[in-house]
Automatic annotation (TrEMBL):
InterPro entries (UniProt xref): WD40/YVTN_repeat-like_dom_sf (IPR015943), WD40_repeat_CS (IPR019775), WD40_repeat_dom_sf (IPR036322), WD40_rpt (IPR001680), WD_repeat_DNA-damage-binding (IPR050853)
The entry's keywords: DNA damage, DNA-binding, Repeat, WD repeat
WD repeat segments: 340-379, 384-414
Xref: SMART domains: WD40
Cross-referenced PANTHER family: WD REPEAT-CONTAINING PROTEIN 76
Family: Belongs to the WD repeat DDB2/WDR76 family.
Protein name: WD repeat-containing protein 76-like
Spans annotated as Disordered: 53-112
Species whose genome carries this gene: Hevea brasiliensis (Para rubber tree)
Pfam families: WD40 (PF00400)
């Protein structure tokens, strides 16, 4: 068979291959590649058949032995062991900034104030001041008394029936649950436009974020109690006048964020504190000890007390919406209810009818309850206010006529009218993020205004009658965002605001 005839392209391709082979043969490339391949194979075979060990390096006698660091767990030592010998010297390193306190173990029992004290100087001045105030009779100048002294006015309603009423005061005949209020604008007992911030009324009392702030309900001394996220509680005597530490005394008797501070005007030497560590403690200045009132496994998120029950403590425990009533006399629960689907953030009682309680929850609701008819099996609320996101607070006005709620859905709710059926939602930006404590709007000294922080380092004043923000308190001295507030229960026009940086600002009216 004759070979196939090649095309011109195939002929040219074969010619190029022969020419390239001649060039490679002239350069001896094929022989060089063969030699390199053979050498590589011999080297691999030799390595697989023999092993060469390097001699050990002898440690010189003059060198110190190498110490391998091992954890306490691998050495079989308890976690609270000191580890190194006390004879070992460590360099003195002073921190350049206030650091996060080290976690301390939970003390199951009483803790002396001396052991909990974190200051360098003695806290004798604070204890003596509190004991002096305890022995001195206090004049009852509560907000309720101020309202009772208001001038009664006559108003003619649309039905032609004339009623005597006091502005902002709840009438006794409506206290069973329905609360009737005067729809007329409540006159303010303080000029909010004159409130200002002085430099001497600013202090950094705590390291880190302040979770709760309270005025000591006292007329003679201006004292503030504040708690932070690390379990510290600080006392700031604003009238210290040259005392050690500028009148600031710092204690650490908790191991987690402080969720509540409770001060009683009837007994100033005893102050309750609640914490995320599940503890309720009582500071007893007479015994100079922090007594353990209650300890649980779940976090305590809120704390309150009924005005007519000084022996009962109401606190929200756990994320299941549970509310506990602790009887301090018997040392046990008097009642336990499940009121919400998520944690309870605030608990408050109506000043005119202490049987009416308000709670706010992360489940997005604020509820009103009648303590006389709460069923332990299935609690039923009197009123439910729904928000789109978590509700951080729900507080009654000083007269008990209104309820103000603060929610993460950027609203402040105001409930009023008979049985609180009138609801108004006021826009307020409440997105504080994870680094700031959530805003909680509080009432002032009457039913006219609500005070709440804003993200521009100011304090917004919301008018209850106009249902809008009418004023923002600002100052060049304000260097941080105020998140938590308290209005002095005895001094009208004195407002305390606490920040994430541990500062406390006290506004006063001229």
């Amino acid at each position: 068979m004759a070979p196939p005839k090649l095309t011109e392209y195939e002929k040219k391709r074969l010619e190029n291959i022969r020419r390239n082979d001649q060039m490679m043969a002239a350069l001896k490339i094929h022989s060089t590649v063969s030699q390199l391949s053979a050498a590589t194979k011999r080297q691999k075979v030799g390595l697989s058949k023999s092993y060469k060990l390097s001699p050990e390096k002898k440690v010189a006698k003059s060198q110190s032995p190498i110490v391998i660091r091992r954890s306490l767990r691998t050495r079989g030592m308890p976690p609270d062991s000191g580890g190194l010998d006390y004879s070992v010297e460590t360099p003195d390193r002073s921190p350049t900034r206030i650091s996060k306190p080290r976690p301390s173990p939970r003390v199951m029992g009483p803790l002396s104030m001396r052991d909990a004290y974190s200051g360098t100087e003695s806290d004798r001045a604070l204890i003596d001041t509190i004991l002096f105030l305890e022995k001195k009779p206090q004049v009852d100048v509560s907000i309720k008394k101020k309202f009772d002294r208001c001038e009664a006015v006559k108003m003619e309603q649309s039905d032609g029936i004339s009623h005597d009423s006091v502005k902002g005061v709840v009438k006794d005949e409506y206290l069973d649950y329905g609360i009737k209020i005067d729809d007329k604008e409540t006159e303010s007992c303080v000029d909010v436009w004159s409130m200002g911030l002085k430099k001497e009324n600013i202090a950094r009392v705590l390291p880190g974020r302040i979770m709760a702030v309270r005025f000591l309900p006292c007329n003679d001394v201006r004292m503030i109690v504040a708690g932070n996220k690390f379990g510290n509680v600080a006392f700031w005597n604003m009238d210290s006048k040259g005392e050690e530490g500028d009148g600031i005394f710092l204690y650490r008797h908790h191991t987690g964020p402080i969720s509540g501070i409770l001060c009683q005007q009837s007994c100033l030497s005893k102050i309750y504190t609640s914490c995320y560590d599940g503890f309720l403690r009582l500071m007893n200045a007479e015994k100079e000890v922090f007594d353990l009132v209650y300890s649980g496994d779940d976090a305590i998120f809120s704390l309150s007390q009924r005005p007519n029950d000084m022996n009962g403590l109401y606190f929200g425990e756990g994320r299941g919406g549970g509310l506990n009533i602790w009887d301090e006399r018997t040392g046990r629960f008097s009642s336990q209810w499940i009121l919400h689907e998520d944690r309870i953030n605030s608990i408050d009682f109506n000043s005119q009818n202490p049987n009416i309680m308000a709670t706010s929850s992360t489940d997005g609701t604020a509820c009103l309850w009648d303590l006389r008819s709460v069923n332990a099996d299935k609690a039923k609320s009197l009123k439910i206010l729904n928000h789109n996101r978590a509700v951080h607070s729900a507080y009654f006005s000083p007269s008990g006529s209104f309820l103000a709620t603060t929610s993460a859905d950027n609203t402040v709710g105001i409930l009023g009218g008979v049985n609180f059926e009138d609801t108004s939602m006021i826009y307020h930006y409440n997105q504080t993020g994870r680094w700031l404590s959530p805003f909680r709007g509080i009432w002032g000294w009457d039913d006219s205004s609500i005070f709440i922080g804003n993200m521009k380092r100011g304090v917004d004043v919301i008018s209850c009658s106009q249902r809008r923000s009418i004023l923002t308190l600002q100052s060049s001295h304000m260097s941080a965002i105020p998140c938590r507030f308290d209005a002095h229960p005895c001094k009208v026009g004195m407002l305390a605001g606490a920040t994430t940086g541990g500062q406390v600002y006290v506004w006063t009216s001229s």
